[in-house]
């Protein structure tokens, strides 16, 4: 059963930005009451900043970075490299609306819209890429982004938070390893990987500081950067200024994860853990990850009895806007790091449940358990729960 809370509350634009004195922050573009927003094409010459995003969380963190960087939307153009997944596309369109309401130019590219789409997209971006002074990226593991990095002459590169993937990126950059997602199985030496290896290697060099090239990581995750890389803390200040504070319910909310869909956790073990968490903590709602399958969510609703909520924005914004439970329980994921920041001062408790090694699929990446334990162990402001015992098969 799907909840109307998937589209909760009034539009967030009504909540204005405030500083400590209650005055309006300059990040929001000025507008007249009742005036229709005028789209800008975005800057393309020297001094321009191009940001490339492929997920709603990446776009949220571009907004956070722009706000923390001083709030000059006139220099920024966000390029959305649109994916196929309908839920991701929907959240991206909502985030694009918020970005435009901040006075930021958004360029939507159907980058995967057919056989000729990649060439058309890259060709159209070649000029702006060569002229831009700063490049902001949300996913350094993306092959699309790695191709685009080969075309830029920018000496200022910023990687904004992509959640737990940011932890892996910084670790691999520091150790000199190839850029490979933590949950990817196998050796990474297949035919496609071999063909793409030179592009990935070039992107990695571009993301390594040297000479006049500056590399910054803007993140809320606990990272230890290599020499020369600047880390700027993402405190979710934009989110807190624009949204909430939320109304709290008396219940507990569970946060779903795509660990089953990425081939890390066994489906049956996952459902057992969700059922046990729901019983133990009295949860009634399940906030679905945008990549969770409809079949799995149907079983969560039918067999466990949880109300399924399909958010239309990243959970940090949904939780901040409310209503939200007084306790939020999650498996190891980005939100155990970001929600405490977004909800600071609200009284909401965030708890994280470890993934039992018995839940892992036999063909899961050998790095999976260590990585997930690290995500849990480094969650500074989340309460750590013991993993739910796995049933005997």
List the helices and strands and how they pair.
Layout: E1 49-53, H1 56-68, E2 76-81, H2 86-101, E3 105-109, H3 117-131, E4 134-137, H4 143-149, E5 156-160, H5 164-175, H6 191-206, E6 214-219, E7 229-233, H7 237-242, E8 248-255, H8 267-281, E9 283-287, H9 294-304, E10 307-309, H10 315-321, E11 324-330, H11 335-342, E12 349-353, H12 368-377, E13 383-385
Parallel strand pairs: 1-2, 1-4, 2-3, 4-5, 5-6, 6-7, 8-9, 8-11, 9-10, 11-12, 12-13
Helix pairs in contact: 1-2, 3-4, 4-6, 8-9, 10-11
Describe what is shown at a glance:
This is Glycosyltransferase. Residues 1-49 are annotated as: Disordered. This protein has 12 helices and 13 strands.
Key features?
393 residues, alpha/beta, Rossmann fold, 2 domains, seven-stranded parallel β-sheet, six-stranded parallel β-sheet, 13 strands, 35% helix, 17% strand, disordered N terminus, Glycosyltransferase
Spell out the helices and strands N to C.
EHEHEHEHEHHEEHEHEHEHEHEHE
Give the number of helices.
Answer: 12
Label the CATH architecture of the largest domain.
Answer: 3-Layer(aba) Sandwich
| CATH fold name of the largest domain | Rossmann fold
Low-confidence stretches: 3-26, 29-38
Q: Main sheet?
A: 7 strands, parallel
Distance between the termini: 28 Å
The helix-and-strand class reads alpha/beta
Q: Classify the beta-strand content into a percent band.
A: 15-25%
The CATH C-level name of the largest domain is: Alpha Beta
Mean pLDDT over all positions: 83
Q: How much helix, percentage-wise, in residues? A: 25-40%
Number of DSSP strand runs:
13
Rg is 21 Å
């Amino acid at each position: 059963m799907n909840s109307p809370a998937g589209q909760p509350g009034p539009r967030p634009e009504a909540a204005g930005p405030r500083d400590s004195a209650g005055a309006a922050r300059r990040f929001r573009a000025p507008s007249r009451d009742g005036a229709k927003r005028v789209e800008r094409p975005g800057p393309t010459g020297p001094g321009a900043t191009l940001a490339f995003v492929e997920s709603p969380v990446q776009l949220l963190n571009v907004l956070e970075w722009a706000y923390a960087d001083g709030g000059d939307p006139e220099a920024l153009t966000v390029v959305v490299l649109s994916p196929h997944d309908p839920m991701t596309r929907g959240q991206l369109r909502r985030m694009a609306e918020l970005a435009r309401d901040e006075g930021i130019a958004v360029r939507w590219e159907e980058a995967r819209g057919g056989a000729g789409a990649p060439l058309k997209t890259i060709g159209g971006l070649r000029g702006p890429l060569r002229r831009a002074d700063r490049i902001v990226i949300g996913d350094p593991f993306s092959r699309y982004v790695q191709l685009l990095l080969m075309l830029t002459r920018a000496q200022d590169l910023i990687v904004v938070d992509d959640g737990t993937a940011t932890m892996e990126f910084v670790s691999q950059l520091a150790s000199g390893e190839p850029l490979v997602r933590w949950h990817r199985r196998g050796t990474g030496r297949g035919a496609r990987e071999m063909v793409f290896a030179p592009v990935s290697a070039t992107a990695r060099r571009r993301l390594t500081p040297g000479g006049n090239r500056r590399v910054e990581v803007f993140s809320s995750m606990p990272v230890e950067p290599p020499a020369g890389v600047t880390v700027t803390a993402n405190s979710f200040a934009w989110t807190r200024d624009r949204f909430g504070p939320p109304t709290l319910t008396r219940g507990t909310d569970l946060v779903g994860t795509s660990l089953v869909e990425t081939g890390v956790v066994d489906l049956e073990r996952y459902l057992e853990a969700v059922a046990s968490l729901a019983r133990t903590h009295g949860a009634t709602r399940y906030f679905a990850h945008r990549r969770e399958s409809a079949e799995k969510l149907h079983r969560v609703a039918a067999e466990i009895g949880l109300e399924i909520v399909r958010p239309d924005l990243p959970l940090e914004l949904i939780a901040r806007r409310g209503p939200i439970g007084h306790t939020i329980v999650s498996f190891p994921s980005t939100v155990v790091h970001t929600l405490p920041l977004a909800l600071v001062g609200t009284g909401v408790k965030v708890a994280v449940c470890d993934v039992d090694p018995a839940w892992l699929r036999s063909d899961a990446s050998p790095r999976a358990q260590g990585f997930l334990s690290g995500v849990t162990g480094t969650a500074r402001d989340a309460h750590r729960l013991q993993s739910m015992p796995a049933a005997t098969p």
